[in-house]
Write a structure and sequence with these properties.
By secondary structure, the chain is an alpha+beta fold. The chain has 4 helices and 22 strands. The chain has a 5-stranded antiparallel β-sheet, with no helix packed on it. Strands 4, 5, 6, 7 and 8 form a 5-stranded antiparallel β-sheet that branches. The N terminus is likely disordered.
Length: 333
């Protein structure tokens, strides 16, 4: 079962439209005089070279300092960039009509297809101009819907998003990720489906996490990014590794499963066979290459490599101790 990603971008756009409507109401375009204060051009970003060595090649990044979003220098540059953008866009005709039409379209709301686990049906729904979609559960096909996770209640300004969710195999628990202010660097939480109680298990740095629950609901395999200080500066958004978490245990004791010593840009995902014996790890390496690794959970051996490192895509699934692989290797065009 694949983790379900919420339509956060649509909701952020809705919020932007709302903000635009407020701005156009309080400051009509006909009353603006951007020419009087308009910047003569976009702001110039100061060049501050930072050198990195990647695979033996020296790469210069002149604008690494702009990645520190909360620094005074970055905020000043952003404000100047926004002022220049507004000076160009605000005088354009038809903006109010565009805001009105987008508001009409976005107020339709959205609903996702359900993820089925046991006798539970999990899905997200956003009503009208809600900032974030809400995770609902239905305990039978024709049963009533009830709210399981409402990210709108987590921040008064609606900027905490539900990034993804993954039910356990029988639906007893749901692991889900939330992030603030569009960062997408999720914090993992676990909620009990029947009661709606959020468990104390909390795991940070779980952006777009891949989750594979044990069949007995006692824990799960998952992907996590390193914290600042655990890797060289600038590498915190790479080095995605696989860990195992036992419910109720400290995250600091989570067993590392896969990723150490590999390319920092690897993107591993996990899936567990129906009998719970085999952990299949699919490693994405860009858009045109992937590799497969298989781990026998009945042994103490590390994952073994199934593919040969060729420039092809591979997908797999384990069924009754056999692995079935699909690939575009040597496939006709």
């Amino acid at each position: 079962m694949l983790a379900i990603l919420s339509l956060s971008c649509l909701c952020v756009l809705a919020a932007a439209v709302q903000a635009g409507e407020k701005d156009s109401t309080s400051h009509p375009a006909s009353h603006r005089s951007p020419a009087a204060t308009a910047p003569t051009g976009p702001p110039e970003a100061e060049i501050k070279p930072v050198a990195d060595i990647f695979h033996g090649t020296r790469v210069i990044d002149n604008y690494r300092w702009l990645e520190k979003a909360d620094s005074p220098a970055t905020m000043k540059w952003g404000a100047e960039e926004n002022a220049y953008t507004r000076a160009i866009l605000d005088p354009l005709p038809g903006r109010e009509a565009i805001h009105q039409r987008l508001s009409e379209l976005l107020s339709i709301g959205s609903v996702t297809a359900p993820a089925i686990a046991g006798h539970h049906y999990f899905y997200t729904r956003r009503e009208g101009m809600q900032n974030q979609p809400v995770l609902y559960v239905r305990d039978a096909v024709n049963g009533p819907d009830r709210v399981l996770v409402d990210a709108n209640s987590l921040a008064s300004d609606g900027t905490v998003a539900l990034d993804w969710f993954q039910p356990s195999e029988n639906g007893k628990y749901v692991a889900y990720g939330t992030s603030a202010a569009g960062s997408e660097m999720s914090t993992l939480h676990v909620v009990e489906t029947r009661t709606g109680i959020i468990l104390p298990d909390t795991i940070e740095r779980t952006r777009a996490a891949s989750i594979a629950w044990l069949n007995d609901n006692s824990g799960f395999y998952y992907t996590r990014y390193p914290k600042v200080g655990e890797v060289p500066p600038g590498q915190e958004m790479y080095n995605r590794h696989v860990f195992f978490h036992l419910l109720g245990s400290p995250v600091e004791t989570d067993d590392p499963i896969f990723g150490e010593g590999r390319d920092p840009e690897d993107w591993p995902n996990v899936q567990l066979s129906e009998d719970g014996r085999w952990l299949l790890i699919t490693v994405e390496q860009g858009w045109t290459k992937s590799e497969l690794f298989l781990m026998d959970l009945k042994s103490d051996k590390p994952p073994i490599r199934l593919t040969t490192g060729k420039e092809f895509l591979y997908r797999g699934a384990v069924y009754k101790d056999k692995i079935y692989i699909t690939t575009n290797e040597d496939a006709p065009r």
